[in-house]
Write a structure and sequence with these properties.
Blueprint (H helix, E strand, L loop, with lengths): L1 H21 L3 H21 L3 H26 L14 H20 L15 H9 L3 H27 L5 H17 L3
Helix pairs in contact: 1-2, 2-3
């Protein structure tokens, strides 16, 4: 049963990671990245590494992905252009991917995957949580305050940029068209 769940989660990780790479819209790529992070967190939970699984979801899904989405939304241009790397020969990328897959398969095939009962790790999550809330409480709280200040600063900068918006070429063309339309109508 665990093998079936592992194969399902691994398939989800591979599929969502591939969709991150091939998505044509950057927001959708970021959403697929969030799905990949969730699936990796589920894989950690399946491997009985609860703390790392929860940290994966909190840090990567809750912080990094949201930061990426904020950056995309705040700096996004209205017109999307085809990236230069998509115009290149696709067969070079395919050959590189096949070569990487061959190296990974031969390396993973040579690794001894047998585990014994006394090799299984013991969960250290309670000790880590106690250390974070006792010995390292001040650095933990300071890091949270620094991240909060950085987030507030990013929002303030983004709002100021929207107010001081620099007109683009498209704005100039639209203004010229509006001016010529008014002069042709005689409403100038």
């Amino acid at each position: 049963m665990v093998t079936v769940i592992f194969i399902a989660i691994a398939s989800l990780i591979i599929a969502s990671a591939a969709l991150v790479v091939v998505s044509r819209e950057i927001v959708r790529a970021a959403l697929w990245l969030i799905a990949t992070f969730f699936a990796v967190g589920a894989l950690y939970l399946l491997l009985e590494a609860e703390f790392i699984g929860v940290a994966q979801v909190l840090i990567y899904v809750g912080a990094v992905s949201i930061l990426i989405l904020f950056a995309i939304m705040l700096t996004r241009q209205h017109e999307w252009q085809e990236p230069a790397w998509r115009a290149g020969p696709w067969w070079i990328a395919l050959a590189g991917a096949i070569g990487l897959a061959a190296v990974l398969i031969t390396t993973l095939g040579a690794f001894p995957w047998q585990l014994h009962a006394n090799d299984l790790p013991v969960s250290r999550a309670p000790q880590l949580g106690t250390a974070l809330m006792r010995e390292y409480l001040l650095p933990f709280q300071l890091a949270a305050v620094v991240l909060l200040v950085a987030l507030i600063g990013a929002v303030v900068i983004a709002l100021e940029e929207r107010r001081r918006r620099i007109p683009t070429l498209a704005d100039d063309v639209a203004a010229q068209r509006a001016t010529t339309d008014r002069t042709e109508d005689g409403t100038s």
